[in-house]
Amino acid sequence: MPRAYVPAAIARQPWSVLLPLIALVSFGAAVLDSAAGGRFEIWSLSHLFRFGVFLVVAMIIARLPRELFSKLAIPVYAGLCFLLVLVELIGGIGGGSQRWLNLGFMTLQPSELMKPGIVLVLAWFYSVLPIGETQSWRALLPAAVLLGIPAGLVMLQPDLGTGLAITFGAVVVMFLAGLPLRWFLGAGAAGLIAAPLAFFFLLHDYQRNRVLVFLDPESDPLGTGYHITQSKIAIGSGGIIGKGFGNGSQSHLNYLPEAHTDFVFATMAEEWGMLGGVFVLVVFGLIFRWGLKVATSAPDRFSRLLAAGMTMTIFFYMCINLMMVMGLAPVVGIPLPWMSHGGSSMMTNMICIGTIMAVERWNRAAPRTLS
């Protein structure tokens, strides 16, 4: 249809990301419906409802001006750190971890909000730091403190997966800000040296077991290695075209744990096969392509770092989840964006999307602002 016949309010929406998101969420709802044995109201209905709610939130975020993002960076970061401290003091305990705050009308996991929060505050920090100082320690020490406080609080919960996600987003922003490559190489070398010490003295017993089972899943196929073993069976049994919608035995017979959350990709792959997996990867590729295009087209340093950091935060979610369900990474409890059932993940990823949409709007407004 010619653009002239499309209402302006519809034409100006970022359909290059909305259409892939709708496709991914709809596919996820179908997979969740199958995982629930055809009972749409159990997981699929709430999945679609949450997407609709947080899509509205993303649209609101997309309308916010750049100056407001910049002004809110420190207050938002400080508020999230305060919430993380409250989690340590009065947070609810579940599954051996203390991660949630009961607000009465909802249960909030502040560590999830810190994923986009750390990207926002570091993008602001490097936007006000003179470019010539990115090669000095003044570019590293404040950023390390800004990262260390929330990452340390999250690790205390303990929540290794979320702590790694927060660290990954921060490191991406620091790298793109232009910090010397030798610092990252040195940090990587130090991490390799410290890894054995952390394994024996810092990790909890269940975290150590996850690493050992990741290296040799068959060593405990009915215990700690059960998740990975059943996930690989589900994915492999799907073959090229899958067993067909609603015919997945691993999830329907309850062999596959967390079939609707962390291991939803395995549920999908059993029924839709490699073709379904390729579809998911292609849709994610379209979303990442859009996010990086927005970042590279951004008119200023703050906008570029913000859009790139949010895009890579979503990428970390996807990458770690897919590696986990295929046995290429230890089980760390990170859901698959827009397919796994869960409100916290949907909230975080839609905040990231809304922020990138805001940068895209700033890109369009930049020529008029500068003229």
Key traits:
3 strands; mainly alpha
Q: Strand order across the biggest sheet?
A: 1-2-3
Total domains, how many? 2
What share of the residues lie within helices? 55-70%
The strand count comes to 3
| Large-scale geometry | globular
Radius of gyration: 21 Å
N→C terminal distance: 32 Å
Class computed from helices, strands and strand pairing: mainly alpha
Indicate the low-confidence ranges by residue numbers. none
Q: Summarize the main sheet.
A: 3 strands, antiparallel
Walk me through the structure.
The chain has 14 helices and three strands. With 371 residues, it is an all-alpha fold. The chain folds into two domains: 22-63 and 207-364, no CATH class; 69-178. A hairpin with a 4-residue loop joins strand 2 (97-102) and strand 3. The longest helix is centred in the C-terminal third of the chain and has 33 residues, at 264-296. The two termini are 32 Å apart.
